[in-house]
Design goal:
Order of helices and strands: EHHEEEEEEHH
CATH class: Alpha Beta
Number of strands: 7
Structural class: alpha+beta
Strand content: 35-45%
CATH topology: Alpha-D-Glucose-1,6-Bisphosphate, Chain A, domain 4
Distance between the termini: 28 Å
CATH architecture: 2-Layer Sandwich
Length: about 160
């Protein structure tokens, strides 16, 4: 049925003119995932299965100048055709006390698919949740979903 998304989350979405089964084919291999999800960061590893590893890095101004940092985790939910969720955390010493969650959810809508990306779990950070949410809200765009739509609708 999918992971519960808490109140403090970032959501980006797109309507893709292809059924969920067609869109989900772009989750089949690491290379296919990299083609659309590796936007704005470098996707080093994405094992498309429950328990699979995800490793990424991003170059960003973290306050001390431009720096490349790694982050990643494991797929905690793999529901083919409908949802993938993963626990994600920065590599030490920049890690949160608990991992955040990323969820990508596909829902049939009209003759296509509503595809949503959620960055959630901020509630678990306590008093710093609001500041963390605000910082990440400013950084997320729809670039991943635009790339996925372009690929899925072209085939």
């Amino acid at each position: 049925m999918g992971l519960t998304i808490g109140h403090l989350h970032i959501r980006r979405s797109a309507l893709i003119n292809a059924p969920p089964a067609r869109v989900w084919r772009e989750f089949s291999t690491e290379e296919q995932i990299r083609a659309w999800f590796g936007q704005g960061h470098t996707l080093h590893t994405f094992e498309p299965r429950a328990g699979g590893r995800i490793e990424m890095s991003v170059e960003h101004n973290f306050g001390s100048g431009l720096e490349r940092r790694r982050y990643g985790g494991h797929v905690v939910l793999w529901e083919p055709g409908s949802e993938v969720s993963a626990g994600i955390n920065w590599v030490k010493p920049h890690d949160w006390p608990v991992p955040m969650m990323w969820t990508i959810r596909l829902t049939p809508l009209y003759d296509g698919s509503l595809v949503e990306i959620f960055h959630h779990g901020f509630e678990r950070l306590g008093r710093s949740a609001g500041d963390e949410l605000e910082g990440y809200e400013e950084g997320w765009t729809n670039r991943h979903l635009k790339a996925l739509r372009q690929i899925a609708e072209a085939k």
